[in-house]
Amino acid sequence: MSDAREKQRFLQLLRERGQRVTGERLALFDEIFSQHGHIDAEELLAAMKARGLKISRATVYRNLDLLVACGLARKQRLERNRFLYEHVHSGQQHDHLVCTGCGRVVEFISPGIAALQAEICRAHGFVATRHTLQIIGLCNQCAQQQPAKAVPGGRTAHV
Amino acid sequence: MSDAREKQRFLQLLRERGQRVTGERLALFDEIFSQHGHIDAEELLAAMKARGLKISRATVYRNLDLLVACGLARKQRLERNRFLYEHVHSGQQHDHLVCTGCGRVVEFISPGIAALQAEICRAHGFVATRHTLQIIGLCNQCAQQQPAKAVPGGRTAHV
DNA sequence: CGATCTTTTGAGACTGCATCTCAACAAGAT
DNA sequence: ATCTTGTTGAGATGCAGTCTCAAAAGATCG
Asked: Who touches strand D, with Cβ under 7 Å?
């Protein structure tokens, strides 16, 4: 766990901002940094309650936003109706492959795409603060299970 | 207006699917194809009501999804809490620069990025059906108005 | 054209995620 | 220990989107 470093930074940022170090904040920090990947606010809330912590929904949402504001977490809207949060590791911004079959989310990093993005911004005089890139489709396994991916025709569900 | 061609296609698709050609569907089609850019469902509903059409929220949502299923429109989740819809022009998939200052959305196309994405999918054995790429930041004008973009520090709003 | 069958619509209830409210609480300063 | 002020919790509220079901309107056929 090299989270200690991040935690120090968190405490420091709180002090700089004149904000308080509360049990809830530390617990939330621990929870999100113990997660290996992405998690949404409701899951986080449930996980914390499951391990006996008393914390309210409002506090979870508030402090997730706080972590984001501190640059310690990232908030992304993926498919469907939810934000996903993930703790920031080493400042590397990455992008996502989202499988519509199993819901799995795989990260990837592409310096080439990043470079092209920078170029596009330059061309438009646009000052980027961040970006989100998701490639939606089927992962290896799911693609094999549904080989004949017919046109979503007929009177079947409107996805 | 080269929408006539698209409209024929829409009518044809409806028949193929055994679905009905209703006044509401045609009206919605006209509305979204008369829009030059992106629009969300609520705006669309409001716009249609404003011009005296009687149509319900449920119908708007249902038929937007239908247009998407027909490949005539695209649905994207951008920032904040809304889906944006846009009619598909010439099948060109494009990406978006989203200005947090004025809310403007500018489209761009980058074959280079598309190629890199394809490569990434290949490397992961991922079968992509689509993607969304947004670059969030400040457009030319807004960037000049807020030159000293300080760190979002202090006790100001948690964005 | 009118009867019939089936899809579609509309109004409003409902859902789920997220935010807001405000009194009670607790962290940090003195 | 006390005081000040940021923070919390419970529930209300907001909002986008979905669902329900009876009524209305396409399509089909005689």
From this structure: A 14, 18-20, 22, 24-25, 54-59, 62-63, 81; B 14, 20-23, 40-42, 57-58, 61, 65, 81-83, 155
HSE on the CB side for B11, CA within 13 Å? 10
What are the tokens at A83? 């934000």
CA dihedral for A11, A130, B104, B142, sign (positive or negative): positive
Which pTM was predicted?
A: 0.72
Q: What is the DSSP letter of B81?
A: T
Instruction: State pLDDT tens for residues A50-61.
Output: 999 999 999 999
Helix and strand numbers, DSSP H then E, in chain A: 6, 5
- Nucleotide nearest residue B42, measured CA to C1': D16
Chain A residue at shortest CA distance from B76: A79
Q: Are strands A95-99 and A127-138 parallel, antiparallel or unpaired?
A: parallel
Quote the tokens at residue A157: 């569900």
Calpha distance B97→A139 (Å, rounded): 28
When pLDDT is cut at 50, 70 and 90, the band that residue A90 belongs to is low
Q: Which nucleotide lies at the shortest CA–C1' distance from B19?
A: C7
Comparing A60-64, A135-139, B4-8, B149-153, the range with the smallest average pLDDT is B149-153
Token pair listed for B11: 């009518």
Q: Tell if A37 CB is < 7 Å from nucleic strand C.
A: no
Q: Is B52 exposed, middle or buried (0-12, 13-18, 19+ CB in 10 A)?
A: exposed
In the predicted model, is pLDDT for residue B155 greater than 90?
Answer: no
The pLDDT tens digits for B45-96 are 999 999 999 999 999 999 999 999 998 998 887 665 567 788 787 556 788 8
